Amino acid sequence: MEARKAIRANVEIEKQQAQLPSLTEIQSLYGTKPYILGLDRCQAYRDAVDPEFRLIGPAGLFNSATNLLAQLLKMNCINNARLKTKKYRPRDAPSGVKIQAPWGKHNPVFWRLHHEAKVGGAGTKQEDFLPIVMIKDPLTWMASMCRHSYEARWRHYPEHCPNLVANRFDKGKEVGESIPVFVKFATQHIGDEPIPDPKNRTFIHYDSLLELWNRWYTEWTAAEFPRLMVRFEDLLFHAEETISQICDCA
């Protein structure tokens, strides 16, 4: 019996190892070096913002590794001009790295200049902040959303997720019908900005989970102000080179 268990265990290990992609397969998907969108705007950002006031931090959809990015930035990027003043408290990002975009890291790009995040948003001039926008392969991102949907609301089941269109497992939907997604974005609105409801919540409708990913990042790609867009996969396979380029930008 013991020998049989050991053989079975070895078989399972071999199966797991066989499922891991090779370096060649990874590079065929994501290339051999990091790709960061927005590096051509770094000089414009540095020209517009004095060194002491330069701030960076993560933005990105749920499950896009914004927390990982925040940790890597704090460990590696330091704004010496800001730090040397010794006048900024810990909550004011003395090293120049904030925990998130001051308008809320998960919020759409048009939240910028109109909303203030409850955590890390107060007292920050949003024009001085360089957002580092995390983006993840939509296939693996949707799988992550199925495990933990955060503030995205849509009808889905373990038997069928991601579910862009309904099949026999999607109760109450016709087969082939699209599955809409509603996302709750919540912030503190700045000044006289209208509050959408008494609980300060905003639900935005998307035609599907994939449309959420596509529209959210399309809006960021079209943004005209300085920002960097960084692939999650580059943090996995090219972390040092990727983080170095981000730090140098600001």
Describe it for me?
With 250 residues, the protein is α/β, with parallel strands linked by helices. The chain has nine helices and nine strands. A four-stranded mixed beta sheet has the order 1-9-4-2, sandwiched between helices. The longest helix has 18 residues, at 2-19. It starts with a helix and ends with a helix.
Jot down its keywords.
three-stranded antiparallel beta sheet; single chain; 250 residues; disordered N terminus; alpha/beta
Number of helices: 9
Helix content: 25-40%
Percent of residues in β-strands: 5-15%
Q: Give me the Rg, rounded.
A: 21 Å
How many strand elements? 9
Distance between the termini: 62 Å
Sheet with most strands: strand arrangement: 1-9-4-2
Question: In a nutshell, what does this entry contain?
Answer:
The chain is an alpha/beta fold. Helix content is 36%, strand content 14%.
